[in-house]
Structures are given as structure tokens and as C-alpha cells.
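Sample log: Periplasmic copper-binding protein NosD beta helix domain-containing protein.
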Amino acid sequence: MTKISYKPLIALALAVFLSMSFAYAAAGGEKGTNTNYINSLPYTINDSGKYLLNVSESGLNGPAIEIIVDNVTLEGNGHYIEGDYIHNGYTQDCGVRALYVSGLTIKDMNISGFASGICFMGVSDSTIFKNNIPNSDEDGIGIYEGCENIRVEQNSISECMFPLYISTAYPYTIPITNVEIVNNEIIDSGLGITLSGNSANAKITSNDIINNSRGICAYIATDLKITSNDIVDAYQGIYLYMATNAKITSNDIVDAMILGMGIYDSNDCDIHGNKISSYGIDLEILNNTDFKESGNKYNDSNII
């Protein structure tokens, strides 16, 4: 009988296994998952999967990270990206930019020094969660025409001209629909939360908006809900222009410098259960139809 030695076969199999493992590690992946590591910037994500930032860099030109494929999770992983503080256009000079894709989650990123921290255009079914975005030249988070089903939650944004900006370009033919803005902190900035152009079914809920020139502004918005937000030390608390079917309820507007709440040229708006205190006008209502107002508490009787 001929004896067969299995030792060479075992050694060969082990060598093949080790070579595959080293090759995978060199590619920046995590064994047994579809997790990828971003080890240098700028970086383009063109394959679906989970991506962890694995480097901190400053002095970057945007976009630092661009996503051009569906179904991506991007996590900051304790690192930061910082731009060069040179304005090169708010949809170009971005920390993270995604155009016409879906199924994204952007979370735990630390982004500063770009014209826009995070920029979405034509993005759907996606979440922006728990990011820290100070010192953007224009937008902290920008959500532009064609976006739908976007949730923006638990982000901290400061020292931005437009901390959270939802906007369609003139002539406003491409809408933004179903954006939820929940439990964010916006401080020491310009226009707080802004909806501009053509938005529908936006929900703005339980945000802390402190020491901004305006708290919440909406221009040409339909089916808008603004609920349970705390707005402190704004020049103007809540400002609506050409809104339709807006419900503004249970908000607390404290120490507005000029105007607590202003509703202009709007239709079918329901304002109830809010607390409003202003050094100027608490509530101003002009050129509205089907307007309902009840159960609000004012600092004084300064209502127009």
C-alpha cells in the first residue's frame, strides 16, 4: 500500500489562505464583511457597502468624499475632514457630496472648513445622522432639488451661514419632498433651518435652535409641520411666506429680538399651542387666507 503524505497539501492550503488574507487587508477591507476603510482623501465611493474614515486631514478642496453609487453607509470612525476655507461653490466645495443616488447613511462625521459640510442633490431614501459640522462657509447640511425621503437627525451644526438648508433652484420646478428634521442642535449661526423654493411634506420637530439670526424660515412650502422646537435668542423666530397647509404647534420661542412669528401671504395655516416671547412683535399675520390661531401664549399683546 502506498502512503500519501497530507503535509504538503496542508501547507499549500495554508499558504493560499494567508496570501488571500494579506491581499484583502492591503485593499483596506475587513475580513468577512463588506466594510472598507478610507485611508486617503479625496475619495470617491463607487461601490455599495460600508465605509469607515480611517484618516484625518486638513486643507482639503471639496468634495473630500463623493458618493456616486446607491446603498452606502459612511461613518466618521473618530476622524475629521477639514477644508481649506476657500469658497469654491456650495455644491462643489463639500465635505461629503452625493448626487442622484439612494439608500445612504452618513453618520458620526466631523466636517469643517468647506462651503458645505454635507451636500445632497437628487438623493432619496437616506439618513444624515449624528454628524458634527462647525464652520462651514455657507451650508452645514444642504439638501437640494430632487431629494425625497431624507431624515436629518441628531446633528450638531454651528457657525454656518445656512446651517440646515433645503432649497430648489429657480424656477422651482423640481420639488423636495418628505424631509424630516428631528432633534438637531443649531447654534451661533445665520438662518437656522431654511426651506426655500418648492418643498412638500417637510417635518421639523424637536430641534434646539439657539442664537441664530432666524430660527425656522419657509418660502413656498406645502403640507409643512413645525412642532416642538425650542428657538432661543433669534432676531426672528419662525417666518413663513407663501406656505400652504402649514401646522405650527407646541413651539417655544424665547427672547426673539424683532419678531416671534410671522406668517405672510399663506393659505390654510394652523397656529396653536405655541409659547412666544419677543422684544418686538410676538405674532404678525399679513395677507393670509383660512388662517387658524388658538391656544398660543404670548409675552404681551403685541400681535399684528
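Observation: Confidence is low (pLDDT under 50) at residues 1-27.
Observation: The CA atoms of residues 272 and 294 lie 5 Å apart.
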